[in-house]
Amino acid sequence: MPDLIRFQNLSKVYGSGNTEVKALWQVSMAIAPGEYCSIMGPSGSGKSTAMNMIGCLDRPSSGEYFFDGQDVGQLGEADLALIRNRKIGFVFQQFHLLPQLTALDNVSLPMVYAGISSAVRNERAAEALTQVGLGQRLHNRPNQLSGGQQQRVAIARAIVNQPLLILADEPTGALDTQTTKDVMAIFEQLNAEGITVVMVTHEPEVAQLTHRVIWFRDGQVLNDHMSPEDMRQTAFFT
């Protein structure tokens, strides 16, 4: 089966001369459909830049990025926007819910941009919220929900267009320990249903709940097949 995500000698360089920063440098890595991966590394390691590349939010300075068989570097902005809307579901640390909208309306937003009718939007948004355990909270606004519930709304919004990939950036960073476990259980279930999940995190205990860890340092991949057991047995990630 072809890779869903493939970097081929990919670099991202900011500035030039004395101010040049190699955020990513000649990175090659691949993630297959259906994988559940985490990306880790210290501050400045390149993990956030890698996330932006994976999410089609930025373009490489050199090298190639293939997503679902397409060379992303050759696509225009309209095509990139379509990929982000229809093939990638984003989950962020701070939820990014619109405070004036209900949970149902927040989850419906990606379908508005996809041109889906109102009736279908409401049905699919309700199904997505039920899937993450919020079937009784459809009409609550964010300020009527706990942090964990708001993140569940954000996950429902990410899956409502039935994406190939969920890309999560520090999704448990604002949550307590028990809520983190609850949210991670949702990601595990979504992956079991066939969705590829890639999570950027600085928390080893969160990364150990994924199936594979990709470790960045100084803009390069030091280890792209670290298992949770490897992390428990080594000081590599400290």
How would you explain this protein's 3D organization?
One of its GO terms (molecular function) is ATP hydrolysis activity. This protein is an alpha/beta fold and 238 residues long. It has a single domain (34-60, 82-233), classed as 3-Layer(aba) Sandwich (Rossmann fold). 34% of the residues lie in helices and 26% in strands. It contains eight helices and ten strands. The strands form two sheets. Strands 6-7-8-3-9-10 form a six-stranded mixed sheet, sandwiched between helices.
Overall mean pLDDT stands at 92
Report strand order across the widest sheet: 6-7-8-3-9-10
CATH C-level: Alpha Beta
Number of separate helices: 8
List the helices and strands and how they pair.
Elements: E1 5-14, E2 21-31, E3 36-40, H1 47-54, E4 62-67, E5 70-71, H2 77-86, E6 88-92, H3 103-113, H4 118-131, H5 147-159, E7 165-169, H6 177-192, E8 196-200, H7 204-207, E9 212-217, E10 220-226, H8 228-233
Parallel strand pairs: 3-8, 3-9, 6-7, 7-8
Antiparallel strand pairs: 1-2, 1-4, 4-5, 9-10
